[in-house]
Amino acid sequence: MHIMARSLKARGVTAESGADPACSASDYLATLGRKVRDARARHGMTRRMLAHDSGISERYLAQLESGLGNFSIVLLRRLANAIDVPVAELVSDEPPHPVAYSLLVERLRSLKPAELSEASAILTQRFGDRSGRVERIALIGLRGAGKSTLGAALAKHLGWRFVEMSREIESEAGIRVAEIFDLWGQAAYRRYERRALERIIRMPPKIVLATGGGLVSEPATFGRLLDSFFTIWIEASPEEHWDRVIRQGDQRVAGSGDTEALADMRRILAQRDPLYGKADARLQTRGKSARQSLTELTNLTRAQVGQPLARQRIP
Fold this sequence. Notes:
This protein is α/β, with parallel strands linked by helices. It folds into two domains: 2-92, 434 Repressor (Amino-terminal Domain), CATH 1.10.260.40; 132-305, Rossmann fold (3-Layer(aba) Sandwich). The protein is 59% helix and 7% strand. It has helices at 2-10, 25-42, 47-54, 58-65, 72-83, 87-91, 99-109, 113-127, 147-158, 165-173, 177-184, 186-201, 219-228, 238-248, 258-276, 290-305; strands spanning 136-140, 161-164, 207-210, 230-235, 281-284. Strands 2-3-1-4-5 form a five-stranded parallel beta sheet, sandwiched between helices.
């Protein structure tokens, strides 16, 4: 050990310089804080919700997100750099991956965004199971987008079954969604969501599914949805999302000021935009009536289901 230390010193490599010289400890903690804040936004969690689920104080979370995290995190990063492995490999509780997996990850890491999309399409075509998508439609988007209203109307128009993910999760858990969050937190909710999705996929075809807004933040669940359903992103402006959530009496935003909550809504949408963008089609509902949106939605699905359009009225 002493010989190695002297060798490193002779080459001008110290414990501090073992890290990326372009990223100091303070820069690293600031980046970590931003990543935590962005991940929280993708999952639609307030800082209070995260504190409740993790058992970590809001005060510490605020410090972490502002770049003032515990310095032991920096020491762990130095250790990983010295061994020349990613930090994630040291803290992961998963078993080691096969060599082929590691080589594939390294190859994908060097690809540009457009090349990654192409590689994903190739892998999906070769290894994915996309059977049944012709007779399954899923609506995705932030809460308040109108997925339930439009989904129920579209299902009636097609003569299909309308399924709402939140109700299926409650059936899976045996309690209401709010109680799942209160008792076990978001991680448990996501596990029930995955189970519910698998059960929905096993249902007879001809289904219109209205998903929860945060489903896209779980890669495995979202990938399964994309493979099994023709997906449509129901898109609206942050202000419209917010107005609809308020009208619905959503308790998840209760007690927070309008300005702060709307800012949270903007952050969530910004983080999820690239995920929602993976949908097969997009319906922009900004400034449109429910009737106009439904007409456009039936246009989007006509080629998919092979049915002629029909007039449909929404009360």
